[in-house]
Each structure stands twice: as structure tokens, then as C-alpha cells.
Amino acid sequence: MISGQKPAPTPEFYADSTVVAYRLPGSEVAISDLQPKVTTSSGTIDATLLADGNFAKTTPYPRLP
């Protein structure tokens, strides 16, 4: 380093992980084909965002006062 100090040691990270994978049966029906209806006591939400498989897009869920 320019200051003459030694850099901080690089932190180490370790975690166990598990992957469970299985083949879906041919008779599996997509949830979007079922056209679910979502009801809430705090307004309406876009149900398609809950079942599209995209975890990056979100839908706000208003809290009750």
C-alpha cells in the first residue's frame, strides 16, 4: 500500500449448500394457466408478478394501518 501499512487480510467465507432437482411430470400445469385470483384486505396486487418465476421484479404489498 502507499501508506506503508499491510492490507487487511482477505475474509474467508464458507457455507454448505444443497441443490435438489427433479424432473416435472408431463402432466404438470403451469400456475399461469390456472389463472389464479389473489385477494387481499389491503388493496389489489398484480398476481402475475407472484407467479412469473422472476425474483427480481417485485410487487408492493401495502400494510394495513
Topology:
Layout: H1 31-34, H2 48-51
Explained architecture:
The chain has 65 residues and is low in regular secondary structure. It has a domain at 27-65. It has helices at 31-34, 48-51. The longest helix has 4 residues, at 31-34. The radius of gyration is 23 Å and the shape is flat. The N and C termini lie far apart (54 Å).
Q: What does the average pLDDT come to?
A: 82
SS summary, helix count: 2
Which class do the helix and strand fractions yield?
little secondary structure
Order of helices and strands: HH
**Strand content range:** under 5%
Total beta-strand segments: 0
Concise overview:
The protein is mostly loops and 65 residues long. It has helices at 31-34, 48-51.
Feature tags:
flat; little secondary structure; 2 helices; 65 residues
